Amino acid sequence: MKTKREDAEVHFQYAEEIQEKLKNDTFAQWLGIELTEIGPGTAIAEMKITENMLNAHGTAHGAALFAIADFVFAVACNSYGKTSVGLSVNIGYLAACQKGDKITAIASEIKRNHRTSWYEVRVENGKELVAHVSALSYRKNDYFVGGDE
Question: Which residues are in the Thioesterase domain (predicted)?
């Protein structure tokens, strides 16, 4: 039987294992998303807007911006080694991105309790905020690191 572990303690004890697990997101890899930073309840990733990410107007498709925001949200809420899944995500698109833009998504934990956690994600293109996300996750009982500790 597992004993109750402190989230931050698990994060730091298993930081490399957590990072390797979360970097193994094949959809994010397919999009060219690069995880650049992970901390307790935080994550940063970058992605270059390519030709196949453009909409009919020639600007970045909202789904591309949502994908990187959703990825850093997933990394941030799973950063404690405890399996967490998204419950709700609201995104606001604030500015257009162009082909070649390098966008950065930054997830920050707002509040966390035993079962849920709330996050803010900022998506920026180096010049301005292009999308803002509020996200809620459900925290399961299971840890995906540390075996049966």
Answer: 57-129
